[in-house]
Write a structure and sequence with these properties.
Structural class: alpha/beta
Radius of gyration: 20 Å
Helix content: 40-55%
CATH topology of the largest domain: Rossmann fold
Oligomer: single chain
Number of helices: 12
Strand content: 5-15%
Number of strands: 8
Length: about 325
């Protein structure tokens, strides 16, 4: 490999939500999410029990670190002396350690000359992805950093991502007997958000529909549905339909097998390991439905390629372009 010391270093800020590493961290983690507002004893106990049931911690940091290692390897797999670019990938969490704001000084100390920011969530919403980018902007401002930033706001339709999801769905359908497999409904899900996002024309629902349509086109399921999961604890209206209501409808229509595909998530964490694997499977069982889901992508090569491609494309934009 040729000398790369004179090639500008691009810092990639790979961001995810964050999660507690043990049960003692659940309370301060919730306080961070709630902006310092106190958490009721009932809610704290409920959330703590969820983490207890999935093993006592969130796997999201370890999985995001694995994704970061793989993405950095993919970005630098060619001779950077020929490509003219070299990358270092950093992991920053929105609501727990390592916080986005704590990672930015490390990037600056390493001498990155440009930052490309990407969230490990394929679908853009101002309330979700926009909040990550705002955390990054705040950290750069606080560090008086005058450095160009290019933001990858969405990678919902990257072909390797669609192919990877499709492959996992096809693999999971094989768990059902061959004679009924073609009739198993595929239920695509993503994290719900407050319905008020629609008032401002937030593109989140359309972003999700784009990914679903591409997967449906590829796998051609006979029956498929869409629903939102993991609604928040607030009393306001949230995007629907819910998984709970959809499972009831499927039961009423005579279905006794369902494949739930959490297309809005890319790795194992509490919304999958508890909300799907425990709560939704329990409801399904009570309805007489066998509920299965595909393995999450985690650091699947297709996911890695999709993220790396979106970063490469951002790197080709003029400095400062968003």
């Amino acid at each position: 490999m040729s000398d790369v010391s004179n090639i500008p270093l691009i810092g990639v800020m790979l961001m995810a939500y964050g999660g507690p590493n043990n049960l003692k961290e659940v309370e301060p983690y919730l306080a961070d999410i709630r902006g310092g507002r106190p958490t009721s004893h009932e809610l704290l106990e409920e959330i703590t029990d969820r983490y207890r049931q999935i093993g006592g911690s969130s796997p999201i940091l370890a999985l995001t670190n694995a994704q970061a290692v793989a993405v950095e390897r993919a970005l630098n797999e060619f001779d950077v002396g020929d490509s003219g670019m070299r990358y270092k990938v950093y992991v920053g969490m929105r609501h727990w350690n390592p916080y986005i704001g704590d990672v930015v000084p490390n990037m600056l100390a390493d001498g990155v000359e440009r930052i490309i920011a990407v969230v490990m969530a394929p679908h853009f919403s101002r309330m979700s992805v926009g909040a990550y980018m705002a955390k990054l902007d705040k950290a750069l401002l606080e560090n008086h950093a005058d450095i160009p930033v290019t933001k990858v706001e969405s990678w919902k339709d990257e072909p390797p991502f669609i192919n990877a999801v499709s492959a996992r769905v096809t693999e999971a359908l094989k768990r059902f007997p061959e004679d009924i497999r073609a009739d198993v409904p595929v239920l695509f899900t993503a994290h719900s958000l407050p319905a008020r996002i629609l008032e401002s024309g937030d593109p989140y629902p359309e972003e999700l529909k784009t990914s679903v349509a591409l997967v449906v086109e590829k796998i051609q399921p006979k029956h498929w549905r869409w629903a939102f999961q993991s609604q928040g604890a607030s009393a306001e209206s949230w995007l629907g339909p819910t998984v709970e209501d959809t499972l009831l409808e499927l039961k009423e229509e005579g279905f006794t097998n369902v494949l739930l595909v959490p297309i809005g998530f890319v790795c194992d964490h509490v919304e999958v390991l508890f909300d799907v694997d425990i709560e939704h499977k329990h409801q399904a069982a009570e309805l007489g439905i066998l509920l299965e889901r595909p393995r999450m992508l985690n650091d699947d090569p297709g996911l890695v390629e999709a993220v790396a491609n979106s970063i490469r494309r951002a790197a080709m934009q003029p400095v400062g372009a968003i």
